[in-house]
Design a protein that fits this description.
The protein is α/β, with parallel strands linked by helices and 236 residues long. The chain contains nine helices and eight strands.
Length: 236
């Protein structure tokens, strides 16, 4: 486990109170359902992944991948006392930026406009051990598309600072960027909404990801939209 970051000089209790946090209902749901979050963390333990990078994606948008990514990050913080960075790499308007109310902050897509020595703007949340890297400006990302090399360089930088880096990525069939970066992660989970996405589509998407060099580690079956995924299947 990485050592905790030193407290910021001059930070007051009032500053801490203004740190972003999960909405009350979702936070309470996570607290009240330890079995669900332990199953998420357990799958990583089965894979032997105690540190590294994890990409959470889906076939289509609105299949619950953001909730799955948040659940995974939360479980690692709560159950493993890990230091976790949750990165928003999804352009969804209902994603991490909205959940934590950080949609207007500088973030991932602004890295090319920052001075070389300037760190990316990681945000400390109100949940001890959980940090965020917001998406930033979608326009900035459009001007400078991600490549695997650029993304791996950023991940290597953060792996030295955090136990686990969880990335909420774009959906596979909704963006071309995912195939360019999927191979750069230690593990990848595909979120699937039950009774919405056909199994043939899941198999096709899995094959596409593996062709791109991704380590597809399993499928998160999300039975109902916007609810916490309850079942982890093994390798597809």
């Amino acid at each position: 486990m990485k050592p905790p970051a030193p407290a910021k000089q001059g930070q007051s209790a009032m500053d801490a109170d203004h740190r972003p946090s999960l909405p009350g209902p979702l936070q309470q749901h996570l607290i009240n359902n330890p079995r669900e979050i332990s199953s998420i963390e357990g799958r990583l333990s089965e894979l032997g992944l105690t540190s590294g990078t994890v990409l959470v994606t889906s076939c289509f948008e609105q299949e619950g991948k953001t909730t799955a990514a948040v659940s995974l990050a939360w479980s690692l913080v709560q159950l493993k006392n890990a230091r976790v960075l949750l990165i928003d790499a999804s352009p969804s308007p209902t994603g991490i930026g909205k959940l934590f109310d950080v949609a207007e902050r500088e973030g991932l897509t602004n890295w090319d406009s920052r001075p070389e020595a300037a760190p990316l703007p990681v945000v400390e949340t109100a949940h001890n051990g959980l940090f965020l890297l917001p998406l930033g400006s979608p326009d900035a990302q459009a001007k400078s598309p991600w490549t695997r090399e650029r993304f791996e360089g950023m991940l290597a930088h953060f792996k030295a600072q955090f136990d686990i880096v969880v990335v909420d990525g774009p959906s596979v069939l909704g963006a071309s960027d995912i195939s360019r970066i999927a191979g750069g992660f230690d593990a990848l989970f595909l979120t699937v909404e039950c009774e919405k996405t056909k199994w043939e589509v899941v198999q096709m998407v899995t094959a596409r990801l593996r062709k791109a060099g991704a380590a597809v580690s399993g499928v998160i079956l999300n039975k109902r939209k916007h609810y916490i995924p309850g079942i982890f299947y093994g390798k597809v």
